């Protein structure tokens, strides 16, 4: 009987054992301070892109607070975080898409290999040819499939002869896994394709100029699961020849496609680490809370 | 800092599912713990009725195991848990099978108790059984506490305790084997005690396994198949 | 049945009634609009349709060299100064030999239009051999005669014609010497003091040149301004100020632009009065805000994702605009331009201020010839005392409306045709 009573006592103790629950503290209180330094391993040896102490301001409002991270060669880096955490803003500052916003100001050091992205001598056109971008919503031009892909090469004069251009178009479409589906209707409007095909067309369009880095801003958010799976497969293939940074709202997607994952929270880079580490044992409580779906 | 908590998910249903898994696990732990206690008691007091009760509980434990497994599978399929949630599910599903094995082992002890009650008491070994039994019981209780409180430190203590149990088990073994050589007539009864000791030692091992899962759950570190010293090292690092 | 369902059901009838009322109100409004339009059209067409026809009187005309006062029908100068009216008067006197007194003769002569001589000159010019010969010709009747024949019985009694004139006309009519024909000269000649000679072609040409100047100036300027404001201009107080002012400009009464044109283009720069060039510039000022506002709306409607896509591929801002924004915004911009032009086409007030209201007989051959435009022509005719001008005014309005409808149809067509979906 003695034993039974200890047991019951033990069970009672156990029921009240969840300390946070017991104290009734919400996870977003002061017990989740931003780390002084990004947790994890944001830097790699010999990076493709090197960002240090990047601040981004919209007018008086600071959207990015001192983010430092590296993107390695032929690596897929996923940027995750709750809405409004600045991951897209950060991504867009990597090929200076933010330049178009008057009130946006970027400071800090951002380098593509040895070149300073925000050097006054740096030409934006050249930069965007080297750092391509795929957007959230599939946005093919209202032109033919062929012209969509050929637009970039034409713009930069990459092909002088029709033959060369044809070849670029075919290779790009093949790389994007779209060639077999569209080879018979290259001259039909790109807007007539399905959503997933359109997005792959946009990827083909981006890689047609042979960029070194491809930035993807939630490329699958407008797509159905099968189209999403195709794009993810494509990302895996592309990472053999390109360096890819992808912003995604789907944590599973980040887990599937990326080698390293960066977690942003309200403009701070909280944690960056190998993807499996981030998804099995994140080191910071904010990351933990986000990954496990406790806010956002 | 304790970041392992079930609540505060955006999805209340997810909270409930995890809470339910945890409650079932605790219920199962309680049942198994009681099985161990009762089995020991039945053996030591030669109480056949109590031994029967232990064997009956077996069924309940098995059902709970299947229920918890099913719930874990469901959470995996529907929620794709990550980080601490994922570790919780993994740890629970492993701990559950350890608990079930503990239940089996205590049933074994209960059966030995029944046999001894029929054949008459063993001339030796009850002291060892009581001693190791208490030890193992504490281990199981502590490991379940550690699980309930997500207390990695306590889990580490349990793991360390298992080494002592092993030592005691080996020394008890030696003395009982010596005794059997001296008195071959008691061999069958002493063997029953030896099987019981063996079962207790296994329960200790399973408790240690659960403690390791607690450490994995809390710290995210895999501490299986290493010595306790290495464990401490890993937890510091 | 739950309480909610019951309540919903109770309120349902009321809601449907309200909906019906709402719909009926809308239909009534449209019906009213259509009715007003119908009234307008019936009135205009009812008054104006007669202007498309005019009456001719048959005469035996002798190209008598003495009466004409010429001896060589191949000499252009002589042809220009020949007395064709005399020949016609002779013919009239021959047809009605009983007319003797001076007063009666004048009344007789006034049956034929003063412009009836021009066809004779043309005939003689192309067939010099006609000199001295006699031909049976149809001569254009005077506007009062024209009115007399077009009028009903009551109208004939009220006519300004004297009883003698009426008698002569009846006799001509009975002999089959009066005919009604399509008024081609309405579409081919310029303005005139004589309603039967007055045509709209001068005004049409004037409008054409004015619109040409307006289009050539306002479309490029308007589109350029819209693109700059929308795509390149920084957002600051200054651009806000410009934006507000463009919107204000669209609301400025058009006569103000006329005063501006008078003061600046004519007064300061010394440009000639009454010419389509100045009219076009003034109308440009008036049309610009419309074109800028509609072009900006069209540019805004181009999805930003297209711009981003082009920019992401490394297109410069100008390339983005030229390759993507312009083609996609073009239907909207064209529609805006055409609607602006249609507005300018119907504009009178500013043109009055710069003197395009003058009485100009010659058809303008270019944008620096004095001219008038359709709406001003309508205004002028509406002001004229002769009875026949009422019909002419309505006919001119019909022509103007036809142009406006054509332009608006073109706008719709262009929009449908050029619009690209994405």
From TrEMBL, chain A:
GO biological process, one term: phosphate ion transmembrane transport
GO MF annotations, alphabetized: ATP binding; ATP hydrolysis activity; phosphate transmembrane transporter activity
GO cellular component: membrane
CDD domains recorded: ABC_PstB_phosphate_transporter
Biased composition (Polar residues): 1-11
Alphabetical keyword list: ATP-binding, Nucleotide-binding, Phosphate transport, Transport
Database matches in InterPro entries: AAA+_ATPase, ABC_transporter-like_ATP-bd, ABC_transporter-like_CS, P-loop_NTPase, PstB-like
All residue ranges annotated as the ABC transporter domain in the record: 49-291
Region span, Disordered: 1-44
Pfam families, alphabetized: ABC_tran (PF00005)
PROSITE patterns found in the cross-reference section: ABC_TRANSPORTER_1 (PS00211), ABC_TRANSPORTER_2 (PS50893)
Statement: the UniProt record of this protein carries the keyword Transport: yes
Protein's name according to its UniProt entry: Phosphate transporter ATP-binding protein
Organism of this sequence: Alcanivorax hongdengensis A-11-3
From TrEMBL, chain B:
GO BP annotations, alphabetical order: intracellular phosphate ion homeostasis; negative regulation of phosphate metabolic process; phosphate ion transport
Gene3D superfamilies in the cross-refs: Phosphate transport system protein phou homolog 2, domain 2
Alphabetical list of Pfam families matching this protein: PhoU
Cellular component terms (Gene Ontology): cytoplasm
Keyword tags: Cytoplasm, Phosphate transport, Transport
Domain PhoU: 25-111, 129-214
Annotated InterPro entries: PhoU, PhoU-like_sf, PhoU_dom
Subcellular location(s) per record: Cytoplasm
PANTHER family hit by this protein: PHOSPHATE-SPECIFIC TRANSPORT SYSTEM ACCESSORY PROTEIN PHOU
Known role: Plays a role in the regulation of phosphate uptake.
Family the entry assigns: Belongs to the PhoU family.
Assembly behavior: Homodimer.
Protein's recorded name: Phosphate-specific transport system accessory protein PhoU
Organism from which the protein derives: Alcanivorax hongdengensis A-11-3
From TrEMBL, chain C:
Transmembrane helix as UniProt keyword: yes
Membrane topology listed for this record: Multi-pass membrane protein
Pfam families in the record: BPD_transp_1, DUF3333
InterPro entries: DUF3333 (IPR024573), MetI-like (IPR000515), MetI-like_sf (IPR035906), Phosphate_PstA (IPR005672)
Keywords: Cell membrane, Membrane, Transmembrane, Transmembrane helix, Transport
Residue spans crossing the bilayer: 21-41, 200-229, 249-271, 277-299, 320-345, 389-414
GO molecular function terms attached to this record: phosphate transmembrane transporter activity
Residues annotated as domain ABC transmembrane type-1: 204-411
GO biological process, one term: phosphate ion transmembrane transport
Superkingdom per UniProt: Bacteria
A GO-annotated cellular component: plasma membrane
Subcellular location: Cell inner membrane; Cell membrane
Predominant location: membrane
Sequence similarity: Belongs to the binding-protein-dependent transport system permease family. CysTW subfamily.
Family annotation (PANTHER family): PHOSPHATE TRANSPORT SYSTEM PERMEASE PROTEIN PSTA (PTHR43470:SF5), PHOSPHATE TRANSPORT SYSTEM PERMEASE PROTEIN PSTA-RELATED (PTHR43470)
NCBIfam families: 3a0107s02c (TIGR00974)
Protein name: Phosphate transport system permease protein PstA
């Amino acid at each position: 009987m003695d034993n039974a009573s200890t047991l019951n006592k033990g069970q009672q103790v156990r029921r009240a054992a969840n300390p946070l629950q017991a104290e009734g503290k919400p996870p977003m209180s002061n017990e989740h301070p931003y780390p002084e330094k990004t947790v994890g391993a944001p830097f790699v040896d010999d990076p493709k892109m090197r960002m240090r102490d990047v601040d981004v301001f919209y007018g008086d409002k600071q959207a990015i607070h001192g983010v430092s991270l590296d993107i390695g060669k032929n690596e897929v880096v996923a940027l995750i975080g709750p809405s409004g955490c600045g991951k897209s803003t950060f991504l867009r500052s990597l090929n200076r898409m933010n330049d178009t916003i008057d009130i946006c100001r970027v400071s800090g050091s951002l380098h593509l290999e040895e070149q300073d992205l925000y050097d006054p001598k740096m030409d934006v056109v050249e930069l965007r040819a080297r750092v391509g971008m795929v957007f959230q919503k599939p946005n093919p031009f209202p032109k033919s499939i062929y012209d969509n892909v050929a637009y970039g090469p034409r713009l930069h004069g990459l092909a002088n002869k029709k033959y060369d251009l044809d070849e670029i178009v075919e290779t790009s479409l093949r790389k994007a896994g779209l060639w077999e589906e569209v080879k018979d209707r290259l001259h039909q409007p790109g807007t007539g394709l399905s959503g997933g095909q359109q997005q792959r067309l946009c990827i083909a369009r981006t890689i047609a100029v042979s960029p070194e880095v491809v930035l993807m801003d939630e490329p699958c958010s407008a797509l159905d699961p099968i189209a999403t799976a195709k794009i993810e497969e494509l990302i895996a293939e592309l990472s053999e020849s390109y360096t890819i940074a992808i912003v995604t709202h789907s944590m599973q997607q980040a887990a599937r496609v990326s080698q390293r994952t960066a977690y942003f929270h309200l403009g701070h880079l909280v944690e960056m680490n190998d993807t499996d580490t981030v998804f099995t044992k994140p080191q910071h409580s904010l990351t933990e809370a986000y990954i496990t779906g406790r806010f956002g | 800092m304790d970041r392992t908590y079930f609540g505060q998910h955006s999805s209340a249903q997810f909270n409930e599912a995890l809470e339910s898994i945890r409650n079932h696990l605790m219920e199962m732990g309680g049942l198994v713990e009681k099985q161990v206690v009762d089995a020991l008691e039945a053996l030591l007091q030669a109480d056949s009725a109590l031994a029967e009760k232990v064997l009956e509980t077996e069924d309940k434990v098995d059902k709970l195991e299947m229920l918890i497994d099913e719930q874990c599978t469901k959470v995996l399929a529907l929620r794709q848990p990550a980080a601490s949630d994922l570790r919780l599910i993994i740890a629970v599903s492993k701990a559950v099978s350890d608990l079930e094995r503990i239940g089996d082992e205590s049933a074994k002890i209960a059966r030995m108790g029944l046999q001894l009650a029929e054949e008459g008491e063993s001339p030796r070994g009850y002291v060892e059984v009581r001693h190791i039994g208490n030890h193992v019981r504490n281990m199981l209780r502590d490991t379940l506490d550690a699980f309930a409180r997500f207390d990695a430190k306590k889990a580490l203590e349990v793991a360390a305790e298992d080494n002592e149990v092993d030592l005691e088990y080996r020394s008890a073994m030696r003395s009982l084997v010596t005794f059997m050589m001296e008195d071959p007539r008691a061999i069958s009864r002493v063997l029953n005690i030896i099987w019981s000791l063996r079962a207790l030692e296994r329960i200790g091992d399973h408790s240690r396994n659960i403690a390791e899962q607690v450490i994995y759950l809390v710290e995210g570190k895999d501490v299986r198949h290493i010595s306790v010293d290495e464990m401490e090292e890993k937890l510091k690092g | 049945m739950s309480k909610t369902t019951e309540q919903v059901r109770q309120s349902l009838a009321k809601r449907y009634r309200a909906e019906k009322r709402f719909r009926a109100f809308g239909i009534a409004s449209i019906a009213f609009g259509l009715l007003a339009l119908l009234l307008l059209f019936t009135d205009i067409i009812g008054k104006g349709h007669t202007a498309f026809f005019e009456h001719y009187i048959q005469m035996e005309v002798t190209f008598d060299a003495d009466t004409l006062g010429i001896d060589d029908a191949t000499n252009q100068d002589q042809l220009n100064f020949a007395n064709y009216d005399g020949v016609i008067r002779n013919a009239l006197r021959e047809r009605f030999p009983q007319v003797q007194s001076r007063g009666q003769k004048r009344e007789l002569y006034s049956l034929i239009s003063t412009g009836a001589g021009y066809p004779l000159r043309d005939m003689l010019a192309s067939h010099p051999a006609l000199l001295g010969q006699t031909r049976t010709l149809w001569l254009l009747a005077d506007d009062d005669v024209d009115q007399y024949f077009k009028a009903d019985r009551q109208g004939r009694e009220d006519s300004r014609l004297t009883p003698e004139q009426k008698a002569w006309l009846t006799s001509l009519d009975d002999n089959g010497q009066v005919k009604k024909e399509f008024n081609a000269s309405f579409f081919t000649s310029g303005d005139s003091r004589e309603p039967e000679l007055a045509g709209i072609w001068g005004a049409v040409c004037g409008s054409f040149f004015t619109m040409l100047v307006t289009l050539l100036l306002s479309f490029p300027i308007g589109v350029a301004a819209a693109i700059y404001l929308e795509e390149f201009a920084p957002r600051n107080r200054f651009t806000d100020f410009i934006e507000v002012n463009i919107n204000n400009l669209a609301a400025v009464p058009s006569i103000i632009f006329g005063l501006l044109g008078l003061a600046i283009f004519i007064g300061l720069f010394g440009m000639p009065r009454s010419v389509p060039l100045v009219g076009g510039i003034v109308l440009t000022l008036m049309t610009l805000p419309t074109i800028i506002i509609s072009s900006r709306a069209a540019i805004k409607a181009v999805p930003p994702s297209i711009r981003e896509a082009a920019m992401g591929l490394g297109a410069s801002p100008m390339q983005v605009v030229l390759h993507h924004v312009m083609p996609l915004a073009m239907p909207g911009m064209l529609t805006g331009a055409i609607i602006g032009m249609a507005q300018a086409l119907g504009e009178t007030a500013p043109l009055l201020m710069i003197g395009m209201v003058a009485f100009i007989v010659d058809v303008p051959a270019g944008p620096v010839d004095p001219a008038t435009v359709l709406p001003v022509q309508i205004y002028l005719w509406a002001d004229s005392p002769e009875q026949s001008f009422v019909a002419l005014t309505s006919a001119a309005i019909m022509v103007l409306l036809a142009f406006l409808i054509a332009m608006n149809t073109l706008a719709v067509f262009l929009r449908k045709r050029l619009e690209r979906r994405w």
